[in-house]
Write a structure and sequence with these properties.
The chain is 31% helix and 26% strand. The chain is of the alpha+beta class and 285 residues long. Helix 2 packs across helix 4 (131-144) and helix 4 crosses helix 7 (175-185).
């Protein structure tokens, strides 16, 4: 990676705009440049308009001191203790990560009381696996950049700040833990939706006089299962793929979109047969 600037003239004055750029090599030896981070204008003639400041804590001082950042070659011999000169030619970017979104996901997690809810139900095991953190990693991933567990393990976690925010390491995103975590959730499904229903009331004043019910399906690129209890079956296909087995997913939400319950049914389930049973369940909840 390196710094690149473009020069523009406006009203007879020269303005410089900097970006952090990386080289990417393509097939055939061709190289393209991809902007990674736009830094904006760095121009001494517009000092007050553009300068970026930061606060530093000095040893023995009770309050931080505000300093200004300037490129080393733009101020000449000006002596000012509140100016920090930056060697732009030696500036490099290492391991940029998603931080703001991860922080917000963690804040929402706490606002919904999920940290307390799962701490009681997913305690660490004898090997030290913190299942509640594994689950929070999965939920944050689904919220910010949904994809497969394999992609989370191979790419996304290393490009996020979750390890720092959770006080964990890459072990929280090991592939076998991501898959195993799902199985540990099923026993707490009813308690989870009871908890969320109460949070919807407290936080968002959700109403439950009218609810929305819908079915969808998802198919599998696999041979038909032989086990009697397996829910993968041939059935009516909403995605126009009659060649594959499927399961049917039923979901109930409030008109505002807050989920209240879901069920996974066998792929050959008829739509009209699910309503009465699901209605009785949601009324009991």
């Amino acid at each position: 990676m390196f710094l690149r600037f473009t020069t523009r003239k406006k009203n007879g004055k020269e303005h410089r705009y900097y970006s952090v750029v990386e080289n990417r090599r393509l097939a055939g030896g061709r190289v393209i440049q991809r902007p990674v981070l736009y830094l904006g204008e760095i121009n001494d003639s517009q000092q007050e308009a553009w300068r970026k400041t930061l606060e530093i804590f000095e040893e023995g001082q009770a309050r931080p001191r505000t300093v200004a950042l300037f490129p080393e070659d733009r101020l000449g011999a000006v002596a000012d203790p509140d100016i920090v000169r930056i060697r732009l030619s030696e500036l490099s970017l290492h391991r940029p990560r998603q931080w703001g979104g991860c922080w917000l996901a963690g804040h929402l997690w706490e606002q919904l009381g999920l940290h307390q809810f799962w701490a009681q139900r997913l305690p660490p095991n004898r090997k030290g696996t913190r299942w509640a953190q594994v689950l929070q990693t999965l939920v944050s991933y689904r919220l910010l950049d949904p994809g497969s567990e394999w992609r989370l393990y191979r790419h996304w976690f290393d490009h996020s700040a979750l390890a720092d925010l959770l006080g964990a390491d890459a072990g929280v995103a090991e592939i076998h833990k991501l898959y195993a975590c799902h199985e540990r959730l099923l026993a707490h499904k009813r308690d989870l939706f009871n908890h969320l229903t109460q949070r919807w009331k407290d936080r968002f004043n959700a109403k439950f006089e009218g609810l929305l019910y819908d079915l969808t399906s998802t198919y599998f690129e696999s041979d038909p299962p032989c086990a009697p209890g397996d829910k993968r079956r041939y059935g009516y296909r909403r995605d126009k793929r009659p060649d594959g087995v499927q399961v049917v997913i039923a979901l109930i939400v409030t008109p505002e979109g807050f989920p209240l319950a879901y069920e996974v049914r066998a792929g050959n389930t008829s739509d009209k047969t699910t309503w009465a049973d699901f209605l009785k369940k949601i009324e009991g909840q």
